[in-house]
Every structure is written in structure tokens, then in C-alpha cells.
Design brief:
heterodimer, A: 435 residues, alpha/beta, nine-stranded mixed beta sheet, six-stranded parallel beta sheet, 15 strands, globular, B: 421 residues, 14 helices
């Protein structure tokens, strides 16, 4: 977690990073930073725009996605964007698609890869990238199972050895107000941490129907949110932001997990029947699997090493929406965003930044300074925290971080992927075997 | 018996006087018939299932001079055990959903044990207090706000009539809890900033529907699984732990509730309309948020406990404090299920009857709010719930075992709405 504190320091210091370090092979000093984008969905397009805005030296030279049409439309969109004139230099032979597109992308001459595909694939993608000497910006989460988290931890270790940067799209870590706040919490402003809560409870999400020409697996990957092996479920895909904040407060992951949850409201039955019919010659038999297998609510208790038990409250359904965090100490409380109440009351009054832009600013500055940020281990830990809470809910079993990290054999992402049949699992029962 | 009957009537008259406004009982308590240590406590048991039978046995074991003299149950087969064990004559055994009314007409009974499913508790408590009986009642005490109001009214009336109400939240009578709470209230862990409570376990018994059973008979025999009868397991079972957290907060009630839950593993029709898991957040004054978690899923990790966290330490509420004022309870651990009856009967005999009615109504209300918040996926205030919620699960006074009654569809979170007036 030391890199996190370092990240905070650098971020808070703003422009304090001197342009003195120039020893790194890639993208040193003020030269051009060549960027490749992996994953051309909404988040990938957003991340690319933010990266281009973050530093005038950024040029994009390659784009990759599972689907050719997304690759082409993304290139077209950026080529036409006046803001980035002259900085979009994507040759025809630098457009990659298919299940192996990340391998081809890793072989191109990009310095920095932006990763925004479905989370399931991040482990192999990051390993391929660091092995090829690329810096990484990765969207969160970075895996959907413990095996994937361990791959990211390995990629992070290699990045450290090679002096490569990894920054993750948990943008709250790059917001000045939170960085200043966390310094104070770590310095004891609210005393010893005694409890906390974090929430992401919202309405539903998109469901993508079938488009002509897709295989079943390609359709599934396009509709990835609804499948646990692809998204990690909502707690991992979305609520990780808030869980990451609580981990930040404690400067590390929890020691123990207990959770309940289920799927009571999600209803994509009509859409699922339509997809089923299109993929199966008009037959709706067995349509249920196309409705997805993720849950719609999880209530988890995260017990941290000092004994503090924190609530993670997430889900999707109509009703009361919640998004945020609170941390409770023996001397005060904090909204985890900008203020402290209690003995050491405090309110952040400095400048505010867009964290989703700032994360790219910090990343590129760190690369240029030759002091690359590496958030790989930390984002793998926060991802594994969310996965652990999900596993506790799916299985009805409590377990330790030590077991989860060291002994869980859960490995749900297929290793060989090619256009063809989809990969389906039944909806978890609440007492699935603990693997 | 005639003598006692007469005394009982006399006391009822006195009670009426007290109810009329005079502090008639501020005087010598010895006039009170039950205050005479030698007087027999004559117990009528309403609801002779596992808990009612257990309570009857614990009551007899708790104190000298206690007799089980009448029994009532919806079903003849259920009251046979107590009838045989305590030689209750046939004419003092009452079968049917209205059996309790006949039992309450017996003037010689001065203590009633209410051990029927919680959905029946409010009207039965009301009738028993009206009949001038002291009460031991099982928890929870209602399954809806309408029932809670009825219990609160009956409890107030019990105070006016100097009648005792003790409830089967036995932790309140357990020395290790009592001693711990004293210390927590004296500041041993400082101000409470966080708390958790759990009732996570496997499944319980289930009575599948038998051929020929009416809707009501089957539901009453399988009562755990119907919200109108049990309140769902967050109310039926987890109320114990919620009550302990309320106790830690000196019975200051939470201001808001925010829950989620569902029916994920236990989905068959034999499980009626209840959920198999709940996760609820209670907001106590000062925005102190607590975790309540309960689950009934076979093979899952069990945990039935409470924990409070203060600015100076933590406690398991049950004999252990860690932190600045570390402490361990090392006193005796008597059976709390017997203790609660001992305390009840000694309070009756001393003329200072315990009345736990309001307190258990409030803890039951917390659990009901948690359930309704999870069912509806709405965060709401206690005040709103008590003033606006129109939910009424109370059985009609003339309900019969042969009646038809559809099983209510289980709540779909986010679709179900809390009924409001």
C-alpha cells in the first residue's frame, strides 16, 4: 500500500513533481507518449479522451476490441474530434479485434495501454502488457475471481521490477479532497477506526440484445455485466469504488468476510427469450440462462485486522438509492470525501478536480518523472475484497482474507476463448460450495 | 379454590379503582393477594407447542408454589403433552383458535403463558390483561404495526392494573448480560459508535401441507413461514439480538432503518412467504449506524451474537469488555429461561410486578421495520412507519381453523410497497 501513500503525496503536491527524472526508457521527459486503447466501449472511449486531455504529448496509435465495428467507430469518433486534431494516428494495421486482440496490441509500439474491456480478461491482458514493457491504465475492477487477482498482483510485481506504471480507474484515489482527508485519517484525526459503511445501491442496468453475426460467446461478452465470470457481479463491478475507499481508510484489505444476498428483482426475461430465440433457431427453450446469473443485492460485513466491522451495502432495484461511504473512529467520523466531524473537525477547502481526469494526469506525470505510480497490488486487493464479499454471500460461508488470497481455488474465467458457445453458470443459491 | 377466586375478584375490583385514577396501590403491597409468598401461582398455558411447553416447565421449575392448571391450543394433539404431565382435567383443556378465551374465563388463574404464534399475541395479550391475568409471553409480540399498537395499549393497561408482563427475551434476565449492560451504561466502553448483531443459522422445522388441511390449519401448523403469523425470521428469531442492541442504547430507539433481503435458497411453497436472509442497518440517534444480519440457510456459517463498539472499548454484551476498562464476567450462569420466570413470579409476589410489555413491543417494532424496509427496499423513519404504515396482519376475531386463507405472495424487493394510510 506504500504506493498508495506515495500516490496521494504526489497527487496532493499537484505540480510539485519535478521534470528531473529522465531515466526511463518509455516516454520520458516531455516527448510523445504513444497510447493504445483496449476495449472500445463507453468507459474505454471515456478513458481515452481523458488521457488525451491529461497531457498534450499523448497520441493514440492503436485501438483494440473484441468487435471490429467498435474498433472502427472508436477510431472514427476520435479522428473527427477537433480537440484531438493531429493526435489520433491510428493506422489500419493498428486496429485489432477478436479474442486475442490484447496480444496483438501488446506487440505494437505503444508506451501506455488503456484497459477497459470486461474485467474478466484483465489478468492476462496486464501480464501481456507488462511483459511487453507497457505502462498501464486499467479500469476497475481487475478480475472476477481470486485467480485473476493473483495474476494482477504478479503483473504488478513485474511492473515494479521493470519500472512500469500501473494506475487504476478508482478515481476517488486521485481526488485532492479525499487525498487530503485520508492523510488526516491515517494521522489519527478520528482516532482508532471502529466501524464504517459503504453503499452503492442503484436502479438497474442495460441489457444488450443479440446482433446479427455474433456467436453466443460474443453476445455474452457484449452483454458482460450480467454474467458473474465476466463482470464479477455488481458488488465487484461497481461497488468496488466504495469498498476501495474503506480499504483506503484502513490502509489495506479486511481480515474476514460474512455476507448475505440474492437475486429477487432482476427481470430480463423478455429480452432473454428474444436472445434465446435468435441464437437457437427461434426456440425459447432454455432461455433462462440468457437472463444472466448476477444477483441484485449483497449485504456484507468486512472485518478489518483491528477488529472493526464495516458494512458494504450494494445492489440494484427500485427503492432507496445510496452511494457513498462513512468511516467511524473513536474520536470522530468522516464522510470519506471532504470533511471530518468530531474532536478534529475539518473541511476540505482546496481546489476540486475531476478524479477521472486527474488519474491520467498523475499517471503520465509519474511516467515522465521516471517515478511510475504502481497501483496494481492495491487495485487487486480491493477487487479481491469485493470478490470475497460476493463469495461469502454466494456460499453462505464466512472466511478469512488469508484463505481467500492463499487458498481459494475459484477460477471461473475460461482460458481458451473463441467465437462459439457461451459459458453459463446457474444463479448462485446462497449456499454454493466454497471453492 | 373458592377462596382464591374471591381474592382474585377482590383484586380486580381494586385494580378497577386504580385504573380510575387513584393510586390505590401506593399503600401496603401486602394486601395484594400474590404478594403473599405462600400463595400458589396458578398458570394457564395458551399455546402448547415447543415454546409454550418449555415455558410452562421453566415456570414450574423456577419457583415453589406454581401449578399448571389449564391449557389451550389450536390443536388437541399439541396440548396433550402438558395435559398429561400436569394432570390437567379435561374441562380445563381448550381446543381451537378461540380456546384462549375460555381459558381466560377461569377466575382462579393468575398467570397466563402466551406461547402461540406471534401473530396471535396482540389480541390474546389484550384479552388476558382485560381478564386481569399476569403474563409471561413469548417474543416477538406482534407481526405488524397494528399489533404493536395493541400490545402497547395492553401494556399500559397492565401497569394501571398492577399486572406483570414478562417477555421471553431471556437475555434480559441473564446475569452475564445484565452485568455487562450495567457497565456499558456506566460508560465502560465510552460512547457507542458502532454495533452489530446476528442470527445466522441453518434451517428450522417445516410442516408440509397434509391432505385435507385447510389453509388456516396448515398455516398455523407451519406458522414460522408466514409473515402474518411469525413476522418472518428477522422478527421471530432475530428480535432477540436486536433487543440486546436496543438495550445497549438504553432502550433509546433507532430513528431510521434501511434494509435488504430475499429468498434465495429456501424457495419452496412449504416456506410460505418469508425470506431466508436479511441485512438491515439501524440508525440510532447521532447517526450511529448498526448492522443487523440474519439468515436461515442450511450449511451456512452460524453466528448468533451481538457486539457493541464504543469510544473506549468493545463488548460482546455477554460478559466481556475489551479496551480501557477490560472486564470479564465470572459470576454464576443460571438458566435464563428459568430466571425470567423466577423474576416474574417474585415480582408478582412482591407486589411490584415487572412490566416488559412496552420494551418488547419496541424491539419487535424494530424488527418489523427491518423486515418492511427489506421487503420494500425503502429507507424510512420510525416515526413515519408508526404514523403512516397501515399494515395489519391481525387475525379476525372469529377466525376458524377451517377457514380459507391464501398464502400471500412473497415480497419482491423494490416492487412491494409498504401499505400506508
Amino acid at each position: 500500500m506504500a504506493s498508495e501513500n506515495k500516490s496521494g503525496t504526489i497527487t496532493a503536491a499537484g505540480a510539485a513533481i519535478a521534470a528531473s527524472a529522465a531515466s526511463i526508457a518509455h516516454a520520458q521527459g516531455t516527448g510523445v507518449i504513444k497510447v493504445g486503447l483496449l476495449g472500445c466501449g463507453g468507459r474505454g472511449n471515456g478513458a481515452l479522451a481523458q488521457c488525451l486531455q491529461a497531457d498534450p504529448g499523448v497520441v493514440v496509435i492503436a485501438v483494440a476490441d473484441l468487435f471490429e465495428n467498435k474498433v472502427r467507430s472508436t477510431r472514427d469518433r476520435f479522428v473527427k474530434d477537433e480537440k484531438f486534431k493531429g493526435r489520433v494516428q491510428i493506422d489500419d494495421d493498428h486496429m485489432f479485434w477478436g479474442f486475442d486482440c490484447h496480444e496483438k496490441l501488446a506487440k505494437c509500439e505503444a508506451d501506455l495501454l488503456l484497459m477497459a474491456t470486461a474485467p474478466a480478461f484483465r489478468g492476462p491482458q496486464m501480464l501481456a502488457a507488462v511483459n511487453a514493457g507497457k505502462h498501464i491504465f486499467t479500469e476497475k475492477p481487475v478480475a472476477t475471481d481470486p485467480a485473476g487477482c493473483r495474476q494482477v498482483m504478479e503483473a504488478s510485481r513485474i511492473a515494479n521490477e521493470k519500472g512500469l506504471a500501473i494506475v487504476a480507474g478508482t478515481q476517488r484515489r486521485h481526488e485532492f479532497s479525499r487525498v487530503e482527508l485520508m492523510k488526516r485519517i491515517h494521522d489519527g484525526a478520528i482516532g482508532e477506526l471502529a466501524g464504517g459503511q459503504c453503499y452503492w445501491y442503484g436502479g438497474g442496468i442495460w441489457y444488450r440484445g443479440y446482433s446479427d453475426g455474433m456467436s453466443e460467446l460474443e453476445w455474452q461478452c457484449n452483454n458482460w455485466y450480467h454474467f458473474n465470470w465476466l463482470s464479477g457481479d455488481q458488488i465487484c463491478e461497481q461497488h468496488i469504488h466504495n469498498i476501495d475507499i474503506i480499504n483506503w481508510c484502513f490502509d489495506g484489505p479486511p481480515a474476514k468476510f460474512t455476507a448475505v444476498g440474492g437475486r429477487g428483482w432482476r427481470d430480463h426475461n423478455a429480452q432473454a427469450k428474444d436472445v434465446c430465440a435468435k441464437l437457437n433457431n427461434g426456440s425459447e427453450e432454455g432461455w433462462e440462462k440468457y437472463a444472466g446469473d448476477i444477483w441484485d443485492h449483497i449485504f456484507a460485513e468486512l472485518e478489518y485486522p483491528n477488529g472493526a466491522r464495516c458494512l458494504s451495502f450494494s445492489g440494484h432495484s427500485p427503492g432507496t438509492g445510496r452511494n457513498g461511504e462513512k468511516i467511524v473512529g473513536t474520536k470522530g467520523t468522516s464522510n470519506c470525501s471532504s470533511s471530518i466531524s468530531g474532536e478534529n473537525s475539518w473541511r476540505y477547502e482546496g481546489p476540486n478536480v475531476n478524479g477521472m481526469l486527474q488519474e491520467h494526469v498523475d499517471l503520465i506525470k509519474s511516467i515522465r518523472a521516471g517515478e511510475p505510480l504502481n497501483e496494481g497490488q492495491r487495485i487487486a486487493e480491493s477487487t479481491l475484497t469485493a470478490i470475497g464479499a460476493r463469495m461469502a454471500a454466494y456460499t453462505g460461508r464466512s472466511f478469512s482474507w488469508k484463505w481467500l488470497l492463499g487458498a481459494s481455488k475459484l477460477d471461473i474465467v475460461p482460458k481458451e476463448l473463441k467465437p462459439g458457445p457461451g459459458v453459463f453458470h446457474p444463479v448462485a443459491t446462497g449456499r454454493d460450495p466454497l471453492v | 379454590m373458592g377462596h382464591r377466586k374471591e381474592l382474585t375478584r377482590r383484586d380486580l375490583l381494586k385494580n378497577s379503582a386504580a385504573a380510575a385514577g387513584a393510586l390505590a396501590f401506593a399503600g401496603p403491597a401486602a394486601e395484594w393477594v400474590y404478594a403473599q409468598g405462600s400463595d400458589t401461582i396458578r398458570v394457564g398455558v395458551i399455546g402448547c407447542g415447543g415454546r409454550g411447553t418449555g415455558a410452562a416447565n421453566d415456570c414450574v421449575a423456577s419457583s415453589s408454589g406454581v401449578e399448571i392448571v389449564a391449557v389451550a391450543d389450536a390443536f388437541g394433539d399439541r396440548l396433550r403433552g402438558l395435559k398429561g404431565k400436569y394432570n390437567v382435567p379435561d374441562n380445563r383443556c381448550f381446543v381451537g383458535l378461540d380456546g384462549y378465551k375460555k381459558l381466560l374465563e377461569l377466575d382462579d388463574i393468575n398467570l397466563v403463558i402466551l406461547g402461540t404464534p406471534p401473530g396471535f399475541r396482540p389480541p390474546q395479550l389484550k384479552a388476558a390483561i382485560d381478564a386481569g391475568k399476569n403474563i409471561f409471553m413469548e417474543k416477538p409480540v406482534a407481526t405488524c404495526p397494528a399489533g404493536i399498537k395493541m400490545v402497547l395499549e395492553a401494556s399500559a393497561k397492565a401497569s394501571e392494573k398492577n399486572l406483570a408482563i414478562v417477555c421471553g427475551t431471556q437475555r434480559r434476565h441473564e446475569p452475564k448480560y445484565i452485568e455487562t449492560m450495567k457497565r456499558i451504561h456506566d460508560g465502560a466502553i465510552g460512547d457507542i459508535v458502532s454495533a452489530q448483531c446476528y442470527w445466522n443459522q441453518g434451517g428450522l422445522w417445516v410442516n408440509r401441507r397434509q391432505p385435507g388441511q385447510s389453509d388456516v390449519e396448515w398455516q398455523v401448523r407451519n406458522w414460522l413461514y408466514f409473515t402474518w403469523l411469525s413476522g418472518d425470521h428477522i422478527v421471530e428469531q432475530h428480535v432477540h439480538n436486536i433487543d440486546v442492541i436496543n438495550w445497549a442504547f438504553r432502550d433509546v430507539q433507532p430513528e431510521q432503518v434501511h434494509g435488504q433481503g430475499g429468498r434465495q435458497w429456501r424457495t419452496g411453497p412449504e416456506y410460505g412467504d418469508i425470506f431466508d436472509h436479511f441485512g438491515v442497518e439501524f440508525f440510532y440517534p447521532g447517526d450511529v449506524r448498526t448492522i443487523s444480519m440474519c439468515r436461515q440457510i442450511d450449511g451456512s456459517t452460524g453466528n448468533v451474537s451481538e457486539r457493541v463498539v464504543g469510544t473506549k472499548g468493545t463488548s460482546n454484551c455477554a460478559g466481556r469488555i475489551d479496551g480501557e476498562n477490560a472486564w470479564r464476567y465470572e459470576g454464576p450462569n443460571p438458566n435464563p429461561y428459568v430466571e425470567e420466570h423466577k423474576n416474574l413470579i417474585s415480582s408478582i409476589r412482591s407486589g411490584n410486578p415487572l412490566n416488559e410489555g412496552k420494551r418488547i413491543a419496541e424491539s419487535t417494532l424494530c424488527a418489523i421495520m427491518g423486515r418492511e424496509s427489506a421487503y420494500s427496499r425503502q429507507q424510512f423513519k420510525r416515526e413515519w412507519f408508526m404514523s403512516r404504515c397501515a399494515l395489519n396482519h391481525l387475525p379476525p376475531d372469529d377466525m376458524k381453523l377451517t377457514d380459507s386463507k391464501e398464502v400471500r405472495p412473497f415480497a419482491v424487493p423494490g416492487v412491494y410497497k409498504v401499505p400506508t394510510a
